[in-house]
Design goal:
alpha/beta, Rossmann fold, Four Helix Bundle (Hemerythrin (Met), subunit A), 2 domains, four-stranded antiparallel beta sheet, 14 strands
């Protein structure tokens, strides 16, 4: 599966700072110090509807991670999956009387268009669950053969007891896990499981649903968590730098994925940092497909909203915060974009050397984009009110905003 085209990232003078970021597993900030190649895995979409602001906010956060790393002169090895077979996708296809593969392909294509418009840097490897199945089956067989998984009426479940580190990613107690498992795709009430929290690794073929050859597992399709584990281990290996996604993925998805990988390899941790973006709401509720309270990137683009303004709206909130999308949020972003473009359109201006370092420091401090935006606002206001004589300043501001914030002026 192919990703989307990359926009050029301008080179800035000097060198950026190492990223200090909040790690869900430890509950505090850690300084990431990757080697020459920084490794990141971000969980992708289940393509049964268009990209909404919640998606965009999440991918914007991890785009900033990439940009901070690139500014430190590192290479970035970024991997993202597409869950192109799963219950919600199949249910939507049945509801709409559409072939599930056509639905997945159409929505994945639209997601690529949205990511391109928002100038999100693409992953090096963009892998669908279906194409990963040949690599998933052997992992499930290994877990089963090692006693870390068991069969139940043809389905194969992972035993959470097989990983002594289970629970360390989310830090939740058993009751909280059980409630979230029921809410987020698990089946804690199924009779016969060794532990209510045990997640499915391989679902035996169901009538009327797609299935694949699972070797000794029989025909079926993979569970949600093992999909990402197989892709991450194949392309990044154990101990990669950042596992990323929305905060609703900390449990069960990232918790279970870590345990799968740790039980498979005997190594710990799966990822050095677990980083989670906050939820975006609309009308007092989390923006989600199940609720239908969505603002789509593609809809705003069709209405003529500049993608750069959409990106500025996302950047105006800290990536870990839960926040509400409103018309005013977008209006403020449109106005800010206009001020910035007017400021850099002049032939000279106030020196921007300090601004570059302010933006770098803000982003290195747990991706504090709002502080970075405020620094650019101050330069733009100084340009408006006082002007300056530095002929290189407007161009340097434009390159800084592009390179570190992903906004083209």
């Amino acid at each position: 599966m192919h990703a989307w085209p990359a926009s050029e990232v301008p080179a800035l003078p000097g060198k950026g700072r190492d990223l200090r970021i909040h790690d869900t597993a430890t509950g505090g900030r850690i300084t990431l110090d990757p080697g020459p190649v920084a490794r990141i895995y971000v969980c992708g979409i289940t393509p049964y509807d268009a990209t909404h602001m919640g998606h965009a906010a999440t991918y914007n956060a991890f785009d900033l991670v990439q940009r901070v790393w690139l500014d430190t002169k590192r290479q970035v090895h970024y991997v993202q999956n597409v869950t192109d077979v799963d219950d919600p996708l199949l249910e939507r296809a049945v509801r709409d009387g559409e072939d599930w593969t056509a639905l997945a392909e159409r929505e994945t294509a639209l997601f690529r268009e949205d990511m391109t418009a928002l100038r999100m840097l693409p992953p090096k490897h963009y892998i669908g669950a279906v194409e990963a199945i040949p690599g998933i089956v052997p992992l499930v067989e290994r877990l089963r053969d090692a006693g870390a998984a068991y069969e139940l009426e043809g389905d194969v479940y992972f035993s959470v007891e097989a990983d002594p580190h289970f629970g360390e990613v989310s830090g939740l107690d058993a009751e909280a896990m059980r409630l979230l498992s029921a809410e987020r795709g698990g089946d804690p009430e199924r009779v016969g499981k060794k532990n209510p929290l045990d997640p499915m690794l391989w679902m035996a073929a169901r009538e009327g649903e797609p299935s694949w050859d699972g070797g000794s597992l029989g025909a079926g399709r993979p569970g949600w968590h093992i999909e990402c584990v197989a892709i991450a281990l194949d392309h990044l290996g154990m101990g990669f730098d950042v596992q990323g996604g929305g905060s609703d993925l900390a449990f069960p998805h990232h918790e279970m994925g870590a345990s799968h990988a740790q039980a498979l390899t005997g190594e710990h941790p799966f990822a050095r940092a677990y980083v989670h973006a906050g939820m975006v709401g609309l009308d007092g509720e989390k923006m989600s497909k199940s609720r239908g309270n969505l603002v789509f990137v593609s809809t705003l683009r069709r209405e003529g909203v500049d993608p750069a303004a959409i990106r500025l709206a996302l950047l105006s909130h800290h990536y870990r915060s839960d926040w509400e999308w409103t018309d005013q949020v977008l209006a403020d972003a449109v106005a800010r974009l206009g001020r910035w473009r007017a400021a850099v359109s002049r032939p000279d201006g106030p020196s921007a050397d300090a601004l570059v370092e302010e933006v770098r420091e803000a982003l290195a401090d747990d991706l504090d984009a709002a502080t970075a935006l405020a620094a650019v606002d101050r330069w733009a206001e100084c340009q408006r009110s006082e002007g300056g004589t530095d002929e290189g300043a407007p161009g340097l501001v434009s390159r800084t905003v592009d390179a570190l914030l992903g906004v083209a002026l």
